[in-house]
Design a protein that fits this description.
CATH superfamily of the largest domain: NADH-ubiquinone oxidoreductase 51kDa subunit
Number of domains: 4
Largest sheet: 5 strands, mixed
CATH topology of the largest domain: Rossmann fold
Keywords: 4Fe-4S, Iron, Iron-sulfur, Metal-binding
GO molecular function: 4 iron, 4 sulfur cluster binding; FMN binding; metal ion binding; NADH dehydrogenase (ubiquinone) activity
Strand order of the largest sheet: 2-1-3-4-5
Structural class: alpha/beta
Number of helices: 21
Number of strands: 16
Shape: globular
Distance between the termini: 54 Å
Pfam families: Complex1_51K (PF01512), NADH_4Fe-4S (PF10589)
Strand content: 15-25%
CATH architecture of the largest domain: 3-Layer(aba) Sandwich
Family: Belongs to the complex I 51 kDa subunit family.
InterPro entries: NADH-UbQ_OxRdtase_51kDa_CS (IPR001949), Nuo51_FMN-bd (IPR011538), Nuo51_FMN-bd_sf (IPR037225), Nuop51_4Fe4S-bd (IPR019575), Nuop51_4Fe4S-bd_sf (IPR037207)
């Protein structure tokens, strides 16, 4: 008898540990597995019971519900008000196309046997049998692009590192998930850490690296603990170390914990932090692929990019690139948050519309009032109005609409939101988080806050709006990295799409 109770930190935050303890004290003879969350966060803690018909889900469950669940024979899938039916038939989950997240919530995160039973290590074993160029060609052909926001083709980056002459090369995973409304990196690490380890190992074999680092934010203590335990298990299994699965390839993996600086999500600032220095952006060139960590050629990808690689290698490039639209191939892991009825993880092929995501999967606002704005791409992403909800969620369409896909975070706001205040937040966020190296970002963001404050107060509104747009142009063109370069995006989109909030008049809300 197997009972699954998520050990994911989101589920724990709403009582999953108490639910697991209550089940353990009242149900004898059962094995309680702390799996990852399925991503339907409005149903957490979601308890699953393995039955003859399949896994049956109940949620959201509290410790106080266990007695009534037992009375309803939930161990054999009995009827109960909290019963969601067979997990695999829950429409919200069944209609997704899970590739990167296919094992998250399904398996025990620390069971290599379950990992392999669900397709794990197939991609790595294939990679071991191929040449470096063959692996890189497969990844390039798949169309896999960086899921951290830039969308740069992963295969091209790998090819550059592979071709660089050096006695040492590195694989760095950027897991400094600092964007508001994003949590996919954390959920994958906590629910299926071996997928990330496998992806990094494949990358290492492809480019000739022997050492990898995962830069993981300190605000994710459960993820840090989970990943370290998974690394230890991989070492004991003979996966990591001097001989990867008995091959001639060597690869080792270490975790470096960040101290909470948003700008360290930028790849060169992350490298500085890993090296033990202050997290300040480096000038480019040289590119990290040529002179990266400790001056050596370095592959830098984020969690979702590297965790997509095992599926590409296991199923082939053709299967992966069959999904998506245009140059945006494969799937994207969208994260729904904010004032939303059904928040969580939705993995779909590129090309799904904003409307399908926020009204279909998200179910609209939690408050029940109409959606007024949606911010896509983190705190530096654009704000979209309802008239733009037919926009396709892919790299090119989002760029054409004046936005960016970023890490896939989607945050909803209802009619109570004031977009002038949101624009102010973008500038103030930049002022606080800037590394301070370049003037447009460091000073521009501070002047931006002051200018928006004048607009809100109704002081020379037209002149200050023009000044604000000029300032945004300088920040976009003159900033050293995306921190200052993208801060104008939420500001300008708010001004363009919600001009009524920038009149200096008392808000109607």
């Amino acid at each position: 008898m197997k009972i699954y109770v998520p050990g994911d930190s989101a589920a724990i935050s709403v009582g999953a540990d108490e639910v697991a303890a209550a089940i353990a004290s009242k149900v004898s003879g059962a094995t309680i597995i702390r799996n990852g969350s399925r991503g339907a966060l409005w149903l957490e803690p979601m308890v699953e019971v393995e039955t003859a018909k399949g896994r049956v889900a109940y949620g959201p469950v509290t410790a106080e519900d266990i007695d009534s669940l037992i009375a309803a024979d939930f161990l054999v899938g009995g009827a109960h008000p909290l019963c969601q039916g067979l997990t695999e038939e829950i429409e919200w989950l069944a209609s997704q196309d899970r590739v990167t997240f296919k094992r998250v919530g399904v398996i025990d995160p620390f069971s290599l046997a379950e990992y392999e039973a669900h397709g794990g290590l197939v991609g790595l074993r294939r990679a071991i049998s191929l040449t470096s160029s063959a692996i890189i060609d497969e990844v390039t052909e798949s169309g896999l692009r960086g899921r951290g926001g830039a969308g740069f083709p992963a295969g091209i980056k790998w090819k550059t590192v592979a071709g660089a002459a050096s006695d040492q090369k590195y694989i760095c995973c950027n897991a400094d998930e600092g964007d508001s409304g994003t949590f996919a990196d954390r959920m994958l690490i906590e629910g299926d850490p071996f997928t990330l380890i496998e992806g990094m190992t494949i990358a290492a074999i492809a480019v000739g690296a022997t050492q990898g680092y995962v830069y993981l934010r300190s605000e994710y203590p459960y993820a840090i603990k989970t990943l370290q335990k998974a690394i230890d298990i991989a070492h004991a299994f003979g996966w990591l170390g001097s001989s990867v699965l008995g091959s001639a390839f060597a690869f080792d993996l270490k975790i470096r914990v960040g101290a909470g600086s948003y700008v360290c999500g930028e790849e060169t600032a992350m490298l500085e932090s890993i090296e033990g220095k202050r997290g300040v952006v480096r000038a480019k060139p040289p590119l990290p692929a040529i002179e990266g960590l400790f001056g050596k050629p370095t592959v830098i990808n984020n969690v979702l990019t590297l965790s997509s690689v095992p599926a590409v290698m296991a199923d082939g490039a053709a299967a992966y690139k069959a999904r998506g639209v245009g140059r945006s191939l494969g799937t994207q892991v969208f994260q729904l948050a904010g004032n939303i009825k059904r928040g969580g993880i939705v993995e779909k092929a590129f090309g799904v519309s904003i409307d399908e995501m926020v009204n279909g999967y998200g179910g609209g606002t939690l408050s029940g009032t109409p959606i007024r704005a949606v911010q896509i791409g983190g705190p530096l992403g654009a704000y979209f109005a309802a008239a733009q909800f037919e926009t396709s969620l892919d790299y090119e369409s989002m760029l054409a609409a004046g936005g960016m896909l970023g890490h896939g975070g989607i945050v909803l706001f209802d009619e109570s939101v004031d977009l002038a205040q949101q624009a102010r937040f973008a500038m103030s966020f930049c002022a606080v988080e800037s590394c301070g190296k370049c003037t447009p970002c460091r000073i521009g963001s501070t002047r931006g806050v002051e200018t928006i404050d004048l607009i809100i107060k109704g002081v020379s509104v037209d002149e200050n709006k023009k000044l604000l747009l000029d300032l945004c142009e300088v920040m976009t063109d003159g900033s050293l990295c995306a921190m200052g370069g993208l801060t104008p995006m939420p500001v300008k989109s708010a001004m363009i799409n919600f001009p009524e909030d920038f009149t200096g008049e008392v808000s109607r809300r």
